[in-house]
Amino acid sequence: MTTSTSARQSTSIGNRGETVASPAIDTASVTALLERGRTLATPVLRAAVGRLASPMDTVAAYHFGWIDAAGNPSTGDSGKAVRPALALLSAEAAGAAPEVGIPGAVAVELVHNFSLLHDDLMDGDEQRRHRDTVWKVHGPAQAILVGDALFALANEILLELGTVEAGRATRRLTLATRKLIDGQAQDISYEHRERVTVEECLEMEGNKTGALLACAVSIGAVLGGADDRTADILEKYGYHLGLAFQAVDDVLGIWGDPDSTGKRTWSDLRQRKKSLPVVAALAAGGEASERLARILAADAKKTETEFADFTEEEFASRAALIEEAGGREWTSQEARRQHATAIAALDEIDIPEKVRAQLVALADFVVVRER
């Protein structure tokens, strides 16, 4: 098959010795795909949220950026819409119209936002998409309830189709959701461990991020009548794309610009997350790695109150040690390795060339972004 219109403009050598491509984004193509996903999925998503009892409907509308904290209409950032875009492309990969994938796009988006509502509360995040998080504005109880309601809605949207394909799609979504929850549980359990292996971290991130992206890129195909092999290969693409996505998020979680990410500086370090840059730095060996290990071991013994009193300089020094030990570079290279694995999976199935090119363009977008 031919390569996507999203050209590869350079290559570099990864820490494992292989040549790794640095993708260039086909910006116009990606923007059009994301916008199509929003345009087709948002009305159905709004209608689904409208089924919720008050005040959950209002709280959910705030979370999605449709209203502000006072209840006034808003054009707040509602996210990148990568998952809806993938679900619509997934339907086209099976030879169906993109509209066939809309229920799947909405269901996946509901599950994704269920996880965000709960994760923000568990992680203590006060900002998302440049606004106060739901638990901060409406309280922890509403964050939990609305998250639960969005999860229930996701299954309702699919099952009310009443088709065999809808049942197959629901099974995939349910499995992906369980893996997502497994990943969040692993993430939390790692925060107070002194050491986490790279393999454990990748498993956690594969569950937390890869599983739902894998579902997004197969669910439309299933609704469009694709066989299990086609759906499984599309899931393989989505799983590795999810690992690439999370690796980029891990870099941004430490070094991202708050004006772009909508989160505080050194966000993941404030939460003591054992993200890929941290884990890779600790596994690297050398003076910087050993110094980092001693500091993080001491951090793990501190109470939440003691840790909350850290200065910006203390977080900056930890970030500098992670970078000096090679954690930042290793993670950036891992994102590119996972990206290449995702693209290679597409060669295992026969899908329209235009759809393949668009899937490649979206994959490129995932690894070259600032938020």
TrEMBL record:
<protein>
    <submittedName>
        <fullName>Dimethylallyltranstransferase</fullName>
    </submittedName>
</protein>
<dbReference type="InterPro" id="IPR033749">
    <property type="entry name" value="Polyprenyl_synt_CS"/>
</dbReference>
<keyword id="KW-0460">Magnesium</keyword>
<comment type="similarity">
    <text>Belongs to the FPP/GGPP synthase family.</text>
</comment>
<dbReference type="InterPro" id="IPR008949">
    <property type="entry name" value="Isoprenoid_synthase_dom_sf"/>
</dbReference>
<dbReference type="GO" id="GO:0008299">
    <property type="term" value="P:isoprenoid biosynthetic process"/>
</dbReference>
<dbReference type="InterPro" id="IPR000092">
    <property type="entry name" value="Polyprenyl_synt"/>
</dbReference>
<dbReference type="Pfam" id="PF00348">
    <property type="entry name" value="polyprenyl_synt"/>
</dbReference>
<dbReference type="GO" id="GO:0004659">
    <property type="term" value="F:prenyltransferase activity"/>
</dbReference>
<feature type="region of interest" description="Disordered">
    <location>
        <begin position="1"/>
        <end position="20"/>
    </location>
</feature>
<keyword id="KW-0808">Transferase</keyword>
<dbReference type="GO" id="GO:0046872">
    <property type="term" value="F:metal ion binding"/>
</dbReference>
<feature type="compositionally biased region" description="Polar residues">
    <location>
        <begin position="1"/>
        <end position="14"/>
    </location>
</feature>
<keyword id="KW-0479">Metal-binding</keyword>
